[in-house]
Fold this sequence. Notes:
alpha/beta, Rossmann fold, 2 domains, three-stranded mixed beta sheet, 17 helices, 17% strand, globular
Amino acid sequence: MLMQVRTENGVVAGLEAADPRIISFKGIPFAAPPVGERRWRAPQPAENWEGVLKAYRFAPISVQNPPGADPRDLYSREWNVNPGIAMSEDCLYLNVWTPADSEKDALPVYVWFFGGGFQCGNTAEMEFDGERLARRGIVVVTVNYRLNVFGFLAHPLLTAEQPETPTNYGHLDQQAGIKWVKRNIRAFGGNPEQITIGGQSAGGGSVMMHLTSPQSEGLFQGAIVDSGALHYPCPGLGVRMVRTMETAENQGRQFFEFAGISSLEEGRRMDAGVLLEKYNAFHGLFTSVIDGKFGVGDPVLQVSRNQCMQVPILSGNTTTEFRFAFPEEDTEAYIRKAAGSLAQDYIECCREKMKESVTQVRSLAAASDMPVIEYSVRLMFEGGLKSGNEQNHYYYVFDPDIPGADHPGTFHSSDLWFWFETLAKCWRSFHGQHYDLSRMMCNYWANFIRTGNPNGLDADGMPMPEWERYTKERPACMRMTQNGPKPEIFPASGPMRILLDAL
Length: 503
């Protein structure tokens, strides 16, 4: 087993996981601490160390509101549970789980980015334990990155100071993590030419950004996007996880004025806790930016136009996470913006959907209700196919019963316990069928990471249900149900079909 590994910066020592065949290395620095003058700059190379670095514990998480602070919050109850976890701007560390016996094993590699709306989240969350996936012959890497005002501030002063890296520092951290993996993962028994990147929610949105960034070209060979494709069909609808540079710079300018910051030097000197307090009071939402450097466009639209890397993609959604409907105010105007010449067809489809005359704005708005992430995934898959993308695309819907007196439904992020096969860490009363489903979902992941195709054998050597690639003629879906994975052909609903055709 690889208990000690020499990286480019020095030797690291790991520990046996619960399964002694897996060695974990936690808290390996992949870049210099982004503190002081390095705040709001692209990540810099990590410094070398002497002796052996004991990589036994997770490093401090990125600066954010303390996890678990609100017990009424669903996510605080699920996994974001430890308000006492160490937190620091010095946060650019990654973790590795490896089953390799030798650096010559050349196993496939999975690099994971956590979600949290680019405002919170960390690699120490219970559901991200890489051990079970590593058991399947995968080297698993989870990467920390800067968040909120530390990771996604834009400002005219920053643009003038560093025009090549004006913002998106959190994404540049992720990119630095992937590059570190390319340079070092062979020592952990991984294959640097067989890297799949993945993430959920904002982590999945991050994967989308890397898929479409020229700066990340050639760094990976596959992508998994869990509930991370987010594109609303019309301007003004929903939360925008990708901002224009103009919007982002205006927000940054307003934030500096609100916080009483007159210069970059003053902003970089400000205490991190005070800066976060001012950001919270500002009530802004700093997220990914189309800066013309790392971010070159709305990533869902970029993929739909085949302006992206030519790699296999596995993506999907849970059944009850996010939905959108056109607002009551100016409903028809919104529909005409989204559906264009097909707007009247859309209205007629809504009438049919309601099985009654849709004459009131309220009824029309209600009839337009549909899952936004499903819409986004279908848009990028079908648009990509139209634009000549011949890579394998695999679509899933996560749809088992999630137990609990709160009757949570298949809420956003609930599938993470299943993909990582970490159900036993959850407080919910999962039972045998859930564990069977989780085992197969983790197998599908491992197969996709290994080959770009999720199909293969279960742990007992038996074939799993075949997962067809998504095509417009056969919109194949693997529905993850209480009774196991169920392959189906899943045409888009009438209103969604019209919006897809309109774009």
